[in-house]
Design goal:
homodimer; 234 residues; mainly alpha; 0% strand; globular; DNA-binding
Chain lengths: 234, 234
DNA sequence: ACCTGAACACCGTTCAAGT
DNA sequence: ACCTGAACACCGTTCAAGT
């Protein structure tokens, strides 16, 4: 009776950005993203659609938010993995991390598709990639090769295709992204390290430094060479 | 003056499914899929939105159609490639075909995203995969390994992620798809051959025979092994 | 045969107004 | 501080009606 200001026993917990996003993830899990409308989301929360706008900016903000929630869930899962990753062990460590991410994504099959449409990058996603890059470094890869490796893994790393750092030739976006990463520097030791090294080699470069065609061919040739070896041994 | 029934010089060519789809591709190329609304499409064609429904069933039909138009464009492009593909030459042949497909897709960057959302499979896309499978067969791969190879190429084969033959555990869909493929048998010698062989080994299987987890791990390990070899030689 | 106008059920979103 | 009602500009789509 003395808890907060609820006049009824109907568990009148107030809305919050967090509660909205959690409900949104639930709606998407249940009926797919196409069922995630502001009006439906409000209904699930027992509230009018317009009330949502007090806690989130707009629908895009909701989509950014649910991607972040899922990426956080992945980070929680992979953070519980404790396996050696130094030297030759890098492969098992990367394999386990990626399969663990996939396992989470299977519960949110809509997530990769939504992730592809985001222009704002999720800080949780960036942290995930930083961890992956760290494992590659543990394996002894140079930043340059590790960078190619992330591209080669591509959709397999997080269940989606689009190149994470492909800002569509948008230099303003590049700079904003770079600034954002610099701000998270202590959370992203490897990505920052990679950027610094690239900046050292090519001072004019920003996050948009990579050549999509080159990365595509690198990944393609890696697969074709692997298949060719399979062919030779069969 | 004697051509058809045009009362004016304004090039009053009548609407047709083909013209609608071509215009739709143009709209998407210009402003992205999000700009492709029935009303806007009609405006571009100088017609009322409702007129479109005489030539296409609905918007989904338009999306199916524009995917098919692009896939046809890819098929035209790759059909002009003439390189040997027997034996060890398979790799160069596959490489060239895939890079050629990518080249076309760069002109229609919205296409992979739309392709992912389609539940009806495009016959042009299926024909593309049949050709790719043919090249793998030329290289001496068994149907079984070639099948894994297609999965491993995944998004790189056509610029999109989602497994082509993953009918979401929909058995009815599987059967419909299988029937559709059988009907195109003379156009799809390799896919049909693959299906027949699988049916021989496992009579109960349909197109849904493949285990997503197994295919994912196959492709992942191919990449990780390739990277590990790179690590060893550097 | 081909196209249209009016209408319906849905979107996301704004804004002034309620408590 | 938090929520809402009415309203707006957009969707896809149906259906009866025009030529």
């Amino acid at each position: 009776m003395a808890t907060q200001t609820q006049p009824r026993a109907g568990a009148r917990i107030p809305l919050s950005r967090d509660r909205v996003l959690r409900a949104a993830v639930g709606v998407a899990d249940e009926g797919g993203v196409e069922s995630l409308t502001m009006r439906h989301l409000a209904e699930v929360l027992g509230v009018e659609a317009m009330s949502l706008y007090y806690h989130v900016a707009n629908k895009d903000d909701v989509l950014d938010g649910i991607v972040d929630v899922v990426a956080e869930e992945i980070n929680d899962a992979v953070s519980q993995i404790v396996v050696p990753s130094k030297g030759a062990d890098w492969k098992k460590a990367v394999r386990e991390r990626i399969l663990s991410a996939r396992h989470v994504l299977l519960r949110h099959p809509w997530a990769p598709g939504v992730l592809e449409t985001r222009t704002n990058m999720s800080s949780a996603v960036v942290r995930y990639y930083d961890g992956l890059l760290g494992l590659l470094r543990d394996g002894g890869f140079s930043y340059d090769v590790a960078h190619h490796a992330l591209h080669a893994l591509g959709s397999r790393a997080l269940g989606f295709t689009q190149e994470l750092f492909d800002p569509d030739d948008n230099d303003a976006g590049d700079e904003a992204a770079t600034a954002m990463l610099e701000q998270m520097a202590d959370e992203l030791p490897y990505l920052i390290g990679m950027m610094r090294e690239v900046a050292h080699v090519d001072p004019d470069s920003t996050l948009g430094w990579c050549d999509d065609q080159v990365e595509f061919e690198f990944g393609l040739d890696l697969i074709l060479d692997g298949l060719d070896r399979l062919r030779a041994t069969s």
